[in-house]
């Protein structure tokens, strides 16, 4: 790592004790910082994290945020789920305590070449594929960020000849200061996260922060087919490379090929990786089949565009399980394709009523109180040749810790059903 002495003896408070907060606290403790972690939640998973940190003499506050806990801090590290209106960030502003994101913390220490991937859809797939292509090229690649493996958990392992394929969300980009990837990549842009961002313009401005610190020695890779994204080429100081869907390559594959070209990776290496790739967990993941009915886990689909992608890539009749916590999305844009491809829509979670109002006149709809109940209903309606698809179009936080837990619950329920 680089800049290791910077944090020694500094009092640093981490806001949020989930994966990224836990990883930040462990990293900072190892660097000699005086670390505290505060989280307004108090669940079994949080207590497990807390128990591990307490053994390292890290102060923990669960079930609340208190001003005195963070007073006299030299720095605050914020997890992606903490928004500007939270009490800790309000207090930090009045106390004039600097606040940075977890990816800023890791970037300050990172000796490797960073490739940062953002966009509304496809980030996980593209970040994963970039890592696989670099590995096939014979170099060490770490795939982390919003994908599920915190940047700060991996940075201590990295060397100057290594690469980081980093998935970054708009939430993570809110609190960067000097974060400067060698290659930034914006895949697409559509309506999302309006439960947190004021409007689409604010959401776009946050996405643009991925290249805000880049210069002429860096690269910004943009989707030529997305007019909004293409137009950003005039706003970055980096060298602009456009990718454009062509031939047998879908947009995600085209983006990967563009990054590989910048790095000088042989085209055949990249095409070989793309040909062998079978997808990422929770994204159009084939779970199993029974009685000619396929079960597909697309829990990562937290936007309407992601669900449209799934519907376009599945043949046969579809029984769709959707719903969760609304992110301010417009579900009416699903009307045309859902009317053609979805036989039955089964709704769960807080957004049930909003989705029903948007699609109730074009689709037969049932409601369920749990994901398992939704699956049982779907199975009772399915016939050979159908697919039961979990593609929620919503966040998971009303019922699950994250989309991964939602996907695991779905897969476990499917396996139990198939076993029966």
Query: What portion of residues belong to β-strands?
Result: 15-25%
Number of domains: 3
Under CATH, the topology of the largest domain is which? UDP-N-acetylmuramoyl-L-alanine:D-glutamate ligase
Going by helix content, strand content and strand pairing, the class is alpha/beta
Question: How much helix is in the residues?
Answer: 25-40%
- N-to-C span: 52 Å
What is the class of the largest domain in the CATH system?
A: Alpha Beta
What would the principal axes of the Cα set say about the shape? globular
Question: In CATH, what is the homologous superfamily of the largest domain?
Answer: Mur-like, catalytic domain
* Biggest sheet statistics: 6 strands, parallel
Number of helices: 17
Number of strands: 17
Task: Describe the fold and architecture.
The chain is built from 17 helices and 17 strands. Helix content is 37%, strand content 19%. It has 420 residues and is α/β, with parallel strands linked by helices. Strand 1 (11-15), helix 1 (19-30) and strand 2 (34-39) form a beta-alpha-beta unit.
In short:
It is built from 17 helices and 17 strands.
Give keywords.
37% helix, 17 helices, 420 residues, six-stranded mixed β-sheet, UDP-N-acetylmuramoyl-L-alanine:D-glutamate ligase, alpha/beta, 17 strands, 3 domains, single chain, Protein-Tyrosine Phosphatase, Chain A, Rossmann fold, six-stranded parallel β-sheet, 19% strand
């Amino acid at each position: 790592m680089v800049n290791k002495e910077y944090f020694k003896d500094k009092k640093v408070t981490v806001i949020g004790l989930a994966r990224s907060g836990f990883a930040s606290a462990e990293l900072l403790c190892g660097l000699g910082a005086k670390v505290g972690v505060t989280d307004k939640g108090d669940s079994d998973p949080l207590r497990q994290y807390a128990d591990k940190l307490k053994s390292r003499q890290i102060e923990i506050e669960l079930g609340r945020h208190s001003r005195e806990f963070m007073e006299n801090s030299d720095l605050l590290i914020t997890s992606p789920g903490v928004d500007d209106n939270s009490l800790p960030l309000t207090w930090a502003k009045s106390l004039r305590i600097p606040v940075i994101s977890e990816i800023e913390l890791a970037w300050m220490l990172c000796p490797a070449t960073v490739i940062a991937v953002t966009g509304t859809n496809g980030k996980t797939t593209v970040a994963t594929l970039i890592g696989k292509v670099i590995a096939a090229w014979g170099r060490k690649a770490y795939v982390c960020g919003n994908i599920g493996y915190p940047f700060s958990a991996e940075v201590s392992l990295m060397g100057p000849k290594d690469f980081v394929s980093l998935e970054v969300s708009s939430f993570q980009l809110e609190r960067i200061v000097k974060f400067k990837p060698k290659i930034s990549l914006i895949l697409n842009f559509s309506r999302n996260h309006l439960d947190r961002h004021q409007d689409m313009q604010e959401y776009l401005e946050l996405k643009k922060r991925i290249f805000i610190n880049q210069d002429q020695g860096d690269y910004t890779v943009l989707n030529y087919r997305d007019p909004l994204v293409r137009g950003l080429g005039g706003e970055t100081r980096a060298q602009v490379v456009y990718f454009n869907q062509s031939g047998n390559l879908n947009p995600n594959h085209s983006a990967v090929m563009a990054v590989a070209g910048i790095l000088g990776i042989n085209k055949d290496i990249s095409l070989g990786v793309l040909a062998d790739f079978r997808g990422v967990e929770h994204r159009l993941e084939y779970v199993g089949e029974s009685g000619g009915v396929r079960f597909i886990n697309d829990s990562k689909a937290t936007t309407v565009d992601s669900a449209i992608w799934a519907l376009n890539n599945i043949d046969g009749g579809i029984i769709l399980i959707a719903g969760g916590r609304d992110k301010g999305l417009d579900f009416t844009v699903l009307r045309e394709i859902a009317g053609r491809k979805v036989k039955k829509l089964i709704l769960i979670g807080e957004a049930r009523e909003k989705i029903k109002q948007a699609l109730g006149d074009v689709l037969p709809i049932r409601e369920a109180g749990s994901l398992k109940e939704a699956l049982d209903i779907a199975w009772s309606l399915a016939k050979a040749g159908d697919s039961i698809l979990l593609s929620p179009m919503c966040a998971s936080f009303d019922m699950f810790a994250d989309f991964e837990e939602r996907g695991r619950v779905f897969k476990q329920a499917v396996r139990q059903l198939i076993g029966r």
